[in-house]
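ARCHIVE CARD
Drawer: 12
Card no.: 0347
Subject: one protein chain, sequence and derived structure
Cross-reference: see card 0346
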Amino acid sequence: MPQITIYATPTCPYCIRAKSLLERKGVTYREINVDLDPEVRAEMEHLSGRTSVPQIFIDEFHVGGYDDMVALDMDDDLDHRIGI
């Protein structure tokens, strides 16, 4: 199963929705809180090219944010990428 990583903050509504979508699909993910660590936020920005959260990765594939993940799901590509 691929590794799913979400760069997030605890109070971000889109982060909460992204995690909820993955939980409904029954997959585990690694959450990295960028709220209190400028180095971790800089890592996220370097990897994604974006400053907003969430930033979601499936292995090395950069999904993008919550809206991007929903678009993948609507195209029936998310399940394939997360291995279900």
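Annotation on reverse: The mean pLDDT is 97. DSSP finds four helices and four strands in the chain.
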